[in-house]
Specification:
317 residues; 43% helix; 14 helices; single chain; disordered N terminus; alpha/beta
Length: 317
């Protein structure tokens, strides 16, 4: 399974290396799960902003290369909602490669009101490395493995509820120390809350895009007025980058401020932050695929061989 960790065929939620994805899936199914792909239907989660043409390649890979008997493709946003038992709401995903705000009504995504931000977990890990290198230039921290940086991020970093105030006041920095493998000690101070901040302020990384709270508000703003309150009542958080302490409260504060600022003061978004939201998409997929009512939604290999990619778009678009 060592090769699995080194293959990164997806960037910002979009497949960029299909050959690597094929090898990764084959190793995961055969070497990791130890199953025979020809015997198991496969449910694939699809990024809300992924190009529809990618579904053709996914179907081709599953049916022609792995020879699975059936497949289904579902939006990560929908599966995140399903993990909470909801089929309508606003999915706010912040994972490793990309953030999305996706309104969903009765199981269908509103693509015209979906927004993405290419600042997520992997970007934050690189940013944390840069912050540490700048703080401790004598320790050669750029040589720290990516896995070690990610573990530091998950263990020590948090979202500030008052970023500018905390930045100005060293008494609020709550420093912690950790030891490197070579015996050296490194202190994390303001880096702890500066690391996740680009999700809220992409300008810290030189990006002119709005932060995630503004995108969540825009998604609500763009749905029909008749649906807005219903979707705002179920704002489901999903993905590992939503697990930072303080993330939910900060998003709630800024989202409420956006509503007041733009004349939607009566709109009170209700955030759903389940403890297992880091794997919400997987949980939702496992729940959906086990439903008796879902079994008629699979595309079988025979159906694919008869109709080709046209069927993929008819069923999943």
């Amino acid at each position: 399974m060592g090769g699995v960790a080194r293959a990164h065929p997806i960037k910002h939620g979009v497949v960029v290396d299909w050959e690597a994805l094929e090898g990764l899936w084959e190793r995961l199914l055969v070497g990791g799960l130890r199953v025979c792909p020809e015997q198991w239907p496969v449910l694939v989660s699809d990024s809300p902003s992924a190009p529809p043409a990618g579904r053709d390649r996914i179907a081709e890979l599953l049916f022609e290369t792995l020879a699975v008997p059936a497949c289904h493709m579902a939006s990560t946003a929908l599966l995140a909602l399903c993990s909470t038992g909801a089929f309508s709401g606003l999915a706010v995903e912040a994972g490793a490669g990309v953030c999305h705000a996706t309104p969903i009504y009765a199981g269908h995504a509103r693509h015209e009101a979906t927004f993405r931000l290419d600042v997520a977990g992997s970007t934050l890990s690189r940013y944390l490395r840069d912050l540490l290198v700048a703080a401790c230039p004598h320790l050669q921290l750029q040589a720290l493995p990516r896995k070690a940086i990610t573990q530091l991020k998950k263990r020590y970093c948090y979202v500030s509820l008052d970023f500018e105030g905390d930045l100005r006041n060293p008494d609020r920095h709550h420093p912690v120390s950790f030891c490197l493998g070579n015996g050296c000690s490194v202190c994390l101070s303001s880096e702890r809350f500066r690391c996740p901040e680009p999700i809220f302020q992409p300008s810290l990384l030189g990006q002119a895009r709005p932060g995630l709270p503004a995108l969540v508000f825009r998604a609500l703003q763009k749905v029909p007025a008749t649906l807005r309150k219903r979707l705002a009542d179920t704002v489901v958080l999903a993905g590992g980058s939503t697990l930072f302490p303080g993330f939910t409260k900060r998003l709630e504060m800024e989202l409420e401020a956006q509503c007041r600022r733009h004349g939607y003061g009566a709109l009170r978004p209700c955030l759903v932050a389940a403890p297992g939201r880091g794997t919400a998409v997987w949980t939702g997929g496992s729940m959906v695929a086990s439903l008796r009512s879902f079994q008629c939604r699979w595309i079988t290999r025979a159906m694919y061989q008869e109709c080709g990619s046209r069927l993929v778009h008819e069923v999943f678009d």
